[in-house]
Amino acid sequence: MTSPLPLEQDFGRLTMSLLADFQRRLDTDLASRGVSGVSRRYRGVLIHLGQTGGARNVDLATAAGIRPQSMMKIVHELEELGLVLRATDPEDSRAKLITFTSRGQALIAELAKSTEAVWQSYCEILGEQSLTQVFSDISRLLDASRSIDET
To answer: Do 11 and 17 meet the contact criterion of CB atoms below 8 Å apart?
Structure first.
């Protein structure tokens, strides 16, 4: 269904709709492989930890775009699920470093498989070359945004 708005005015709806579609496809693939308990609110934490291997609560909150207090609650829930653990940060004994448990690492591997499945489904729609170009363009937009935020 196309919007009556010009593309530049409908950009926000399209990008949010794409995120919702990605999340739905990811959930469907995870469920098809018997993976449950990976709510959308946990994914920002899990993805960031998957990229860094360990992080402080405040860094996770910044990466997810939420308040540190909210992140503390999410980390506590993930800890109760046995997916992460908190340990003293070797660089600052006052801080806690959040890392994956072996169960959390296995979950990241499952998320990676599901992400690949979603990528493939998008490749079937657009073709790999077009999707790669879209990804490159979106990455450039986000990189430009990060440089503005850093100034």
So the answer is: no
